[in-house]
Amino acid sequence: MKNILITGGAGFIGSNFVRYMLKNEPAIQVINLDALTYAGSPTNLEALPGEKRHTFIQGDICDRALVDDLLRQREIDTIVHFAAESHVDRSILGPEQFIQTNIVGTFTLLEAAKFYWLHERKWNDGQARFHHISTDEVYGSLAPDEPPFAETTPYQPNSPYAASKASSDHLVRAYHHTYGLPTTLTNCSNNYGPYQFPEKLVPLIILNALEGKPLPVYGDGQQIRDWLYVEDHCEAIALVLRQGRIGEEYNIGGDNQPTNLEIIHTLCSILDARLPASPHAPHTQLIEYVTDRPGHDRRYAINMAKIQTELGWQPRQALASGLEKTVDWYLNNADWVAKIRSQQQYNQWMQQNYVDRS
């Protein structure tokens, strides 16, 4: 890798990956393309390591002319594709943007890479790589006694978000098998950690608890997820880029299966310990059960045997330590929280999805 294009690099996982690559790959140049929609912010890119090797460009991955120019002018040899609409609740209320970004956007990038790398014969000697970031939600929902998702698990997406990601996964796979585009793909479990947009469960609970606001629990709170610390995810992606087999898919998880309610109780316990004088302690008193998400998947679990066996990867953070690090980050970065929360669109969404929930 010399010149790497990271799409969605001002979002949560993308910005963490930008930091990881600048810190751990001192010879690369990072070109960061992000449309700066609600979940992407320049605030996520402040104080980067190796800042001179980072170039930010605001733009849409659906803009083929822009993508073509970037690939040629920057001599891009690696694409890491994070850019996606990713919140299930948003996809239920407004699926159209998920189709546009996640499917049409991925198609646009694939077409541009195919033309530049294969038709123009640039980086056609095995040095190029198109890496696509996907989700475990494409596999659907597991019953309590079913084995975890493996790379061979049939796709069965249950939300507009999951369906759009499944579609983009199929396009990536097809472009490898049909055209020979050098691709890899990873399906990750729920990420958490620094810089996560505060509509997602972990930062939402932390920030609401700090302010004494209700801690919303969808349904009975017994939905099960596998939780992956974002820096562990970044390390796994970098390893797949370096050592993963072209055309292959790898599942990445955190090796845990708590319920959502357990996550909330753990976060409350950490806050109780960090802030014993808080007027809201014990913070579990703020828990409030709300209307469940339509079609809410009951259980996800990840089988990581492939990436562990082939590449020797496993998560560094246990769930307890990762959640402690995450709580501490939000406690120590009030300025970041204030900037993100000052966005009008953010406040409108929080009112619509949580306060006015029905």
Structural write-up:
With 358 residues, this protein is of the alpha/beta class. The chain has a domain at 3-197 and 227-256 and 297-318: Rossmann fold. It contains twelve helices and eleven strands. The protein has helices spanning 12-24, 64-73, 88-93, 96-119, 160-179, 201-211, 230-243, 260-274, 305-311, 319-331, 334-341, 344-355, and strands at 3-7, 29-34, 54-58, 78-81, 129-135, 183-188, 190-192, 215-218, 227-229, 249-252, 287-290. The strands form three sheets. A seven-stranded parallel sheet has the order 3-2-1-4-5-6-10, sandwiched between helices. A two-stranded parallel ribbon has the order 7-9. It has a two-stranded parallel sheet with strand order 8-11. Helix 5 links the parallel strand 5 (129-135) and strand 6 (183-188). Helix 1 packs across helix 7 (230-243), helix 6 (201-211) crosses helix 8 and helix 6 (201-211) packs across helix 10. It is globular, with a radius of gyration of 20 Å. 44% of the residues are buried. The model has no long low-confidence stretch (mean pLDDT 93).
